[in-house]
Amino acid sequence: MLDLPAGYKMKNLFHADRLRKADNDPLPGQVQTPPPPEEINGEPEWEVEGIERARIHGQKKRLEYQVS
Questions:
Q1: Which of 3, 7, 21, 35 to pair with 50, CA 20 to 30 A apart?
Q2: Per-domain boundaries in the chain
Q3: What is the 3-state secondary structure (H, E, C) of 22-55?
Q4: Which DSSP state fits 12?
Q5: What pLDDT, in 10s, does the model give residues 16-59?
Q6: What CA–CA distance (Å, rounded) separates 37 from 43?
């Protein structure tokens, strides 16, 4: 059951097509569009919350990070 404000003059019945999960808690398969990067000294930069994994990849042994 959905609690609506007292002033709403509608039923609390909605078709499933009208519902979606909140952006901060997406369903599997939903993709959140990341915010555009900030430009600092002409270079794009993103804020990193944390490093999830690190690996050395490829023939050139390049260090790569998976971040959140």
A1: 21
A2: 16-67
A3: CCCCCCCCCCCCCCCCEEECCEEECCCCCEEEEE
A4: S
A5: 787 776 667 767 777 777 788 889 999 988 888 899 999 999 89
A6: 9
